[in-house]
Design goal:
Shape: globular
Strand content: 15-25%
CATH class: Alpha Beta
Distance between the termini: 34 Å
Structural class: alpha/beta
Strand order of the largest sheet: 5-8-7-6-9
CATH architecture: 3-Layer(aba) Sandwich
Radius of gyration: 17 Å
CATH topology: Rossmann fold
Helix content: 25-40%
CATH superfamily: Nucleoside phosphorylase domain
Number of domains: 1
Order of helices and strands: HEEEEHEEHEHEHEH
Number of strands: 9
Number of helices: 6
Length: 275
């Protein structure tokens, strides 16, 4: 896997700065499947498609618009990614996590990342929102493979607290204030695009996973590497394979995301005010 150079990240950031003028984002918000509508609430939006940014790949996943929305949301300067990049689209881990480093150069200090995933924990239900406390990734290379870009962080970064404890406290308080039940647990990354098999889900449960999905972890690793705070939420759009005696579908995931959107967006906006 060929890594990007600092000069390439800088070129992308400069291109965005030319479009944004004096505006600088404090928070990068990545929206997962079925959750992109929150980007439509951004005030004074500046919309920039991913393919208009030098070196950045485009999004091909269903329901992912593939664009940045810069502006104000819940009183904060944000960069919203309406749709993300995935390795199952054929992109490398470096490609998928590329925008995190670019936004870091623009001044973003916090990553708020969301995803839609399958619930592994049998105490969970479809529609639950889970606060990510940690993750597992056993598949594929790391987004940090290749020559280390020292301008962002060390060769061997600590991953003891990828998901910032103080921000998890903020999320719990926000959920209580809105009377939104909030699960907590470990997110396990699978590359996809096929859904996990029942045997893989059983293994994930034995290893301590509470939800399984195909995103989030590459971006979180890179954010932690470059010193950003990270807050992550999973919308459990369905029970993972084998938990219930029924097949899984992408349409189910998107529909569940849209149904949960009011609760999910309220929680995210409440957190934005405090992070």
């Amino acid at each position: 896997m060929e890594a990007y150079t600092f000069a390439q990240y800088r070129e992308s950031a400069d291109a965005l700065e030319a479009r944004l003028g004096e505006f600088r984002p404090e928070i990068l918000l990545i929206l997962g499947s079925g959750l992109g509508a929150l980007g439509d609430e951004v005030e004074h939006p500046v919309v920039i498609p991913y393919d208009a940014v030098p070196h950045m790949k485009h999004s091909t996943a269903p329901d992912h618009k593939g664009q940045f929305v810069f502006g104000r949301l819940a009183g904060r300067n944000v960069a919203v990614m309406q749709g993300r990049l995935h390795t199952y689209e054929g992109w490398s881990f470096a490609d998928v996590s590329y925008p995190v480093r670019v936004l870091r150069l623009l001044g973003a200090e916090t990553l708020l990342v969301t995803n839609a995933a399958g619930a592994v924990n049998t105490a969970f239900s479809a529609g639950d929102i889970m606060l990510i406390t940690d993750h597992m990734k056993f598949f594929g290379v790391s987004p940090l493979c290749g020559g280390n870009v020292e301008e962002f962080g060390p060769r061997f970064p600590d991953m003891s607290a990828v998901y910032t404890p103080a921000l998890r406290t903020v999320a719990r308080k926000a959920a209580r204030s809105l009377d939104i039940p909030l699960r907590e647990g470990v997110y396990m990354y699978f590359p996809g695009p096929q859904y996990e098999t029942p045997a893989e889900v059983r293994a994930a449960r034995l290893l301590g996973a509470d939800a399984v999905g195909m995103s989030t972890v590459p971006e979180a690793i890179v954010a932690a590497h470059c010193g950003m705070q990270v807050l992550g939420f999973t919308l459990c759009t369905n029970m993972a394979a084998g938990v219930l005696d029924q097949p899984l579908s992408g349409e189910e995931v998107i529909a569940a995301g849209q149904q949960a959107a009011p609760r999910f967006t309220a929680l995210v906006k409440a957190c934005l005010k405090e992070v």
